[in-house]
Structure formats: structure tokens, C-alpha cells
Design brief:
The protein is of the alpha/beta class. The protein has one domain (7-115, 153-223): Spore Coat Polysaccharide Biosynthesis Protein SpsA, Chain A (Alpha-Beta Complex). The chain has helices at residues 17-26, 43-51, 68-76, 98-111, 159-172, 179-184, 205-223, and strands spanning 11-12, 15-16, 33-38, 58-63, 85-88, 113-119, 124-128, 138-143, 149-158, 191-194. The chain has a four-stranded mixed β-sheet with strand order 5-9-6-10. Strands 1-2 form a two-stranded antiparallel sheet. Strands 3-4 form a two-stranded parallel sheet. Helix 2 links the parallel strand 3 and strand 4 (58-63). The chain is globular. It starts with 10 loop residues before the first strand and ends with a helix.
């Protein structure tokens, strides 16, 4: 993002992005408890902000790791064995809808593993860089768009399955960019529930402009 403030603490309409995301998750009646992984220096600030919200669920803030996988692994250690499902969500996806939350949870309950995703609209190229300049790559293949989806969160899994996937990844020294990747390598099917283009992950400065636009649309709709 290029800002001194971590992107999850940047504000939209005076509210940190992470709090907007938390409000969406906490509003889902199927969610019984929430664990938030963050940097050590952000724990106290986030805990104080969460206390102002009066969420119905227990919300615990813990120290995360150096990567997404490390952070989820730390949170997963605190999930009791008798919890049916674990839902993993990016702190910087504040526009996930109640309908999509309910749908992906329902599908995970049915098949043990489900994520939100959207079809790729652009042509997808596989490339290699070799000895080319840093901003140049060589196309090695064109991947049919109908075979590609862009993964989103939430990603929802049977608790036992997700813990097994993380334990196996740790034993094998494997890192993946999302939880579905770890479950896939165990040989389990992961279903994709059609998500929404509005469920953006705020990672670049331009994403903040789009997020402000989406927030204004929601506020306008709420006033009607």
C-alpha cells in the first residue's frame, strides 16, 4: 500500500478497514466466536477498538506470524476440537455480503471445504521471466478462462480437515497462498461458491478509491 499505517488500519469514513470486515463477519448468525491475528504492536489498539463495538460473539486478538499461513496457524491452535467449521477471512475484505457468507458456510457444511471465488474475465497467461528485464516476461501458455477462478475469502472448512492440512503442511515444509491450497494437497475436493466483484481485497492505493465508492453506495442504499 506504500503507507506507514498497515492497510487493515487505514480508515474508510473514519472506521478502520479491519473493523468494517469484523462487522460483516460478526453480523453472521452462524459465527459463534472470532479470533483476529495481527502484529504485536497492533494488539492493544485493536482490542480497545473492538470493545467499543459490543459484538455478540467472543472476539480474541492474538499475535500473528510473518505470513498469512503462519497467522492462521496461530489462530487455529485456539479453535476447540468440537467446533464444526472454521471460516478464514481477510481483514481487508470489508464488503463481503451476508448472502455470500451464508452460502459459503452452507456449502462447507455440506462438502467440508468451500471458498468464495469469481470467474476470470481477462485472458490468463502463464509466463516465465528467465533472463529478461524485470518488467518483461515470456508467455509459455494460455490458460482457458473457463478453467480459472479468482479465489476470495471467506474460505470455510471442517475444523478437523483444516487442522490436518496445516499439520501436514508444517511437517512437509509447505507454504501456500491460501487455506484451500493446503486442503487440496491432501486430496480433498474444495468447492467454489460464486462470490462478488465487490468483495475486493484492499491492497493497492487505487483500491481505496474503489472501496470509498462502494461504501458510499451502501450508505446511500441504507438511507433509502
Amino acid at each position: 500500500m506504500g503507507a506507514e499505517t498497515p492497510k487493515q488500519f487505514l480508515e474508510l469514513d473514519g472506521v478502520p478497514i479491519v473493523m468494517l470486515s469484523l462487522r460483516r463477519i460478526a453480523a453472521c448468525p452462524q459465527v459463534s466466536q472470532i479470533i483476529v491475528a495481527t502484529r504485536q504492536e497492533g494488539i492493544e489498539k485493536l482490542e480497545a477498538r473492538i470493545r467499543q463495538e459490543n459484538f455478540q460473539q467472543s472476539v480474541r486478538v492474538i499475535k500473528g506470524g510473518d505470513s498469512r499461513q503462519d497467522s492462521v496457524a496461530q489462530a487455529l491452535k485456539l479453535v476447540p476440537e468440537d467446533v464444526e467449521l472454521v471460516l478464514v477471512h481477510d481483514a481487508v475484505r470489508p464488503f463481503v455480503s451476508p448472502e455470500h457468507l451464508a452460502r459459503v458456510i452452507e456449502e462447507a457444511r455440506r462438502c467440508k471445504a468451500a471458498i468464495l471465488g469469481i470467474p476470470a474475465m481477462d485472458t490468463v497467461k502463464e509466463v516465465k521471466r528467465a533472463s529478461l528485464p524485470e518488467d518483461v516476461a515470456l508467455i509459455t501458455a494460455t490458460i482457458p478462462r473457463e478453467r480459472v477462478v479468482l479465489a476470495q475469502t471467506p474460505q470455510v472448512f471442517e475444523t478437523r480437515l483444516l487442522k490436518e492440512a496445516f499439520a501436514r503442511a508444517e511437517a512437509d515444509g509447505v507454504n501456500a497462498s491460501d487455506e484451500a491450497g493446503l486442503v487440496e494437497r491432501l486430496g480433498y475436493d474444495v468447492h467454489v461458491v460464486h462470490g462478488s466483484e465487490r468483495n475486493i481485497k484492499i491492497t493497492k492505493p487505487a483500491d481505496m478509491d474503489l472501496a470509498r465508492f462502494y461504501l458510499q453506495l451502501e450508505q446511500k442504499k441504507a438511507r433509502v
